[in-house]
């Protein structure tokens, strides 16, 4: 199967190329990129004049494990959606179930630090499902520090998951913020020895909790320097809030000193998690300068009225999804904080996309457009389009070359050591994977809102995953499930 994309503005962050050219795709690979290519006999020819052609976006931080959610991400330009912050366990089951159900996008998972601890501490057997993982988040047993025996048990579980193909270790430290820092050091040493990255939701900052065992952002910088591990700081915008400038300065000093610290951000002032998470407690909210009214229950739309109601919700169903408003996007100051996080040198764009929930309890739908009433965070549908609107179209902070570098090239390079197959992703030259996005530079924008979060982005004209069109002429193809696994190979 061959496809010729003719006359587009080709952007290849791997070569630093930005110019008009044709792109020839043969099966799942880019076979040629040059002006004036002849169409081989039988090739499909697609006129992409006036459009931007680049490597599809690689999302390091997606909790979407469904056809429905991945279709929203496809309409946002994503070709590979990986769950690396939380991960799933057991990893073999996660890959097997994704393959059996089919996926529009490529997929992959990290080894789940939280699930391994829950098994070692409380005997909770993980089942590789995101909804089960959310339910575990409010369980205090796994949040405490480990005994020596428990530590050895869950480190062994993580090591086994890495051997089975996990893409590194996902660490939800923010959900166990009082746990012993020595345990995190042990994880970093394991990662360094195995040659895999860690992906961390950091614990509290000292500005928020002076009694924290370690400043969350400084901790990963220090451990990267001490152990030599590659350590990725997840959603720096949401964990840093109004302290983001100090955090970015801390991380920059670490990188300048030679530590392998990478950073991600998304362009929203509200996060999404389980209501039982440690940092959603009334006490933790108060330390952040927030209150119960900053919490909105995702499935019902209820804005929590007071501490009593919040405590009740946390006790009744700690896994219930909610939104947490940590910045006010209506103010210029807070919008500036979000944009500075995105603009931080070499920061990558990652969505933290969440599952879609329907009132009848479904987490999946193969209908398209999606059935009405679905609840999720708008970042599931709009992270990349919103970032391009803000950073390229409206402010000119990034060129298109820089945008593809942040959304495609740099995320792929974070995976190079753990997944050799990632070398063919994130760039657009002969030999690259045929994971391509074709977008309209004049109209690319998000449409999802907090009130209507499942509205697909506008401006994605074509999307190819492994050479297969998932979006064609702006229309999603419901028969396309070409996603394939991206797996780790430890040294």
Secondary structure layout:
Blueprint: E1 2-12, E2 17-26, E3 29-34, E4 44-47, E5 52-55, E6 57-59, H1 67-74, E7 78-83, H2 91-101, E8 106-109, E9 111-112, H3 113-122, H4 130-136, H5 140-143, H6 148-163, E10 169-171, H7 181-194, E11 198-200, H8 216-227, E12 231-233, H9 236-240, H10 244-256, E13 261-265, E14 270-274, H11 282-287, E15 295-297, H12 307-316, E16 321-325, H13 332-343, E17 348-349, H14 379-394, H15 400-414, E18 436-439, E19 460-465, E20 468-472, E21 475-476
Parallel strand pairs: 1-4, 1-5, 6-7, 7-8, 9-10, 10-11, 11-12, 12-13, 13-17
Antiparallel strand pairs: 1-2, 2-3, 5-18, 14-16, 15-16, 18-19, 19-20, 20-21
Keywords:
alpha/beta, 20% strand, Urease, subunit C, domain 1, 491 residues, single chain, TIM Barrel, 2 domains
Give the CA-CA distance, first to last residue.
35 Å
Structural class: alpha/beta
CATH superfamily of the largest domain: Metal-dependent hydrolases
Count of strand segments: 21
CATH architectural label of the largest domain: Alpha-Beta Barrel
The major beta sheet can be summarized as: 9 strands, mixed
Mean pLDDT level:
95
Organism: Amycolatopsis ultiminotia
InterPro entries: D-aminoacylase_insert_dom_sf, Metal-dep_hydrolase_composite, Metal_Hydrolase, Metallo-dep_Hydrolases_sf
Protein name: Amidohydrolase family protein
